[in-house]
Write the structure tokens for this entry.
Amino acid sequence: ELGKYRHYMQKEIFEQPQALANTLEPIAGAGAISPQIFGAEAVDVLKATRRVLILACGTSYHSGFTARYWLESVAKIPCTVEIASEYRYRESVPESDTLVVVISQSGETADTLAALKHAKSLGMTKTLAICNVPESAIVRESALRFITRAGPEIGVASTKAFTTQLAALALLTLALAKINGRLSAEQEAGYLTQMRHLPVAVGKVLELEPEIEKWAQRFAGKHHALFLGRGSHWPIAMEGALKLKEISYIHAESYAAGELKHGPLALVDKEMPVIAVAPADELLEKLKSNLQEVRARGGELYVFADAGSEIAESEGVHILHMPEHYGMLSPILHVIPLQLLSYHAALVKGTDVDKPRNLAKSVTVE
Ligand code: F6R
């Protein structure tokens, strides 16, 4: 079943072009985005939506956190993202015009399911599940649904589920933007073209594997790593850190790069590899000055930059250029080298990649 791959995780990373193509099938031949892809009643629900509350755990929380940047900047809808296990137990203020979005690969995560039920018990009945398992508890409990078509994910570390969740959330953003009159026909066509090209774009990023493997060799011996990002790529830095910890057992933390000087910079020395997610967006110049702060303290930098970005290799600064810049959807591409990096670091360390210690694929206990 593994074919040419050594582990399910590697196979699933390389299945992402197909998983995305399958997930995006609802827009494959379409000239426009139709809200009905979220269910028959979606038009009315999305029209009445004034805010979005996203609830999820782990990697699924990171896809939701990325979507927050999209929903507020493109659809102009206020969005809150909360860890399901926190939301379910705290006193919060329900708002009836909220669309509650729960994100889950398995559809069985106990905390996410309980958070969904809790939101409903507070009167928030407009619910949407973004899920990889159609007959799961979370899907059954939700009014609207979008099924990601990543196919079965066997490796404990979530990879293709994450990128397909992001694709689904990008569609949700565009559907809400359109319904709110925030999307011109031209912009819609542009986004659709970009989304249809995603499988090819992801395929090109996967070709970076041999270079990433070399990087992984260099820091598999380290005990700590710091992941930095800004804007919609901060959650991608968070996801990179989570992947590295869970399968290679290297302690990794992620920070919004602007937070560096408010504390974590104290940790940086030559033993601390710093991985930066550095797309060519409006925050790049700011990020570069954060990277200089790291370099000045002797930290070894590993930078994932975009094609054409003017960041130069130098002593202690390693740069890998992504094949292309991808605008709003760039987080979907930028997470892929981080998946590969943690996979190869784990290989060097000889850990059980598909079944990391202490973890279960589906967390059905709280
Ligand atoms: C990390 C990972 C977990 C899950 C989390 C939620 O690689 O797989 O963090 O993302 O347990 O699981 P789902 O998405 O099934 O609700």
Q: What stands out?
A: DSSP finds 13 helices and ten strands in the chain. The chain has a mean pLDDT of 95. Residues 145 and 319 are 40 Å apart (CA to CA).
